[in-house]
Specification:
rod-shaped; 1 helix; single chain; mainly alpha
């Protein structure tokens, strides 16, 4: 009888210990799944940050090329202004020459 009680007690303790181990195993498994999920979240965040970096880099390149375009446009406008100034000077000179010719022809007419 005592032996039967001891056996029953042993079986009960082993069964409870097994249940505890099983529960602990499930807890560890859940913790592992949480860590995996966290790892995936961190990987996704890293990819997002990389993509954002590439977008910012591309934006910087666009701004640079826009700045170069503006500089080129400024140079073109400056050159156009110089051409207009030169044309204006030529027209002024031509106007003075014509006035001089008129004056000469008037003087010749008088004499």
């Amino acid at each position: 009888m005592l032996q039967g009680l001891l056996s029953l007690l042993t079986i009960t303790l082993l069964w409870k210990g097994g249940r505890r181990q099983k529960a602990e195993g499930r807890r560890q498994e859940a913790g592992g799944r949480r860590q995996e999920a966290e790892g995936r979240r961190q990987e996704a965040e890293g990819r997002r940050q990389e993509a954002e970096g590439r977008r910012q880099e591309a934006g910087g390149r666009r701004q640079e090329s826009g700045g170069r375009r503006q500089e080129e446009e400024g140079r073109r406008q400056k050159a156009g202004g110089r051409r207009q100034e030169a044309r204006g000077r030529r027209q002024e000179e031509e106007g003075r020459r014509q006035e001089g010719r008129k004056l000469v022809s008037k003087l010749l007419y008088l004499f």
